[in-house]
Design brief:
The chain is an alpha/beta fold. It is built from 8 helices and 10 strands. The strands form 2 sheets. Strands 6-7-8-3-9-10 form a 6-stranded mixed beta sheet, sandwiched between helices. A 4-stranded antiparallel beta sheet has the order 2-1-4-5, covered by helices on one side.
């Protein structure tokens, strides 16, 4: 992949944790090197406990590697302090988790606007309400603006979480098992929505998932096993689906 088209780059990233029995530390991630292109969609699959969420957290600056570098748009994130990393997360990275983490006391509209409260970009804050309305309309929730999360279905709550992740116009969207808590129909709809937004918003999408239906929609599918990433292999190679 040409350097000019790379938005996120991992260079020999290693992460280790102390062993539960007091033995030698365990390398969860081992010397991972990866380049992800602008506007690309990538699925990361692998066994439970293989370190997929740890890898995503390092990509999103929620955790730091023990060695190696993470580069975002050419910036070495290891050189930034915690305050600077918080600014990176707020402005340049969007997060979607299996649990929607919506504030139960706030309306849909208010939940979507929460990330803008910490933004120092005055122009972004001034345009936030208009962007929120447009995004909620795009995901079919324009009639739910005043509803609270408890009045929504699981699929609707997760769509609100998706809009919230996009409100500050991030360059990268990181999704950790985004369909894991949904029924099959809702999961299918959310998968279609994520890929559509990836294509139409131009935001780079990286999703950790056990759902092959979602993984099949991505440009690239990588498997994390024994601490290392590799293209998915097996008896049934994934064929791309289009929405």
């Amino acid at each position: 992949m040409a350097e000019a088209s790379t938005i996120l780059k991992l260079d020999h990233v290693t992460k280790r944790y102390n062993s539960a029995d007091g033995g030698e530390p365990v390398d969860v991630l081992r010397e991972i090197t990866l380049a992800i292109g602008v506007g690309e969609s990538v699925a990361i699959v692998g066994p439970s406990g293989s370190g997929k969420s740890t890898l995503l957290n390092i990509m999103g600056t929620l955790d730091r590697p023990d060695s190696g570098k993470v580069m975002l748009e050419g910036d070495d994130l290891s050189t930034l302090d915690d305050v600077q990393l918080a600014s990176v997360r707020n402005r340049r990275i969007g997060f979607i988790f299996q649990a929607h983490h919506l504030l139960p006391q706030c309306s849909v509209f208010e939940n979507v606007l929460v990330p803008t409260l910490a933004s120092k970009d005055k122009a972004l804050r001034n345009g936030a309400e208009s962007r929120a309305r447009k995004l909620l309309e795009r995901v079919g929730l324009e009639h739910r603006l005043s509803h609270r999360p408890g009045q929504l279905s699981g699929g609707e709550r997760q769509r609100v979480a998706v809009v919230r992740s996009l409100i500050n116009g991030p360059k990268i969207l990181l999704a950790d098992e985004p369909t894991g808590a949904l029924d099959r129909a809702s999961a299918e709809n959310l998968g279609q929505l994520l890929v559509k937004l990836n294509r139409e918003e131009g935001v780079t999408l990286i999703a950790v998932t056990h759902a092959l239906d979602l993984a099949q929609r991505m440009n690239r599918v990588l498997e994390l096993r024994d601490g290392q990433l590799q293209p998915l292999s097996g008896e049934r190679p994934i064929e791309k689906k289009h929405v």
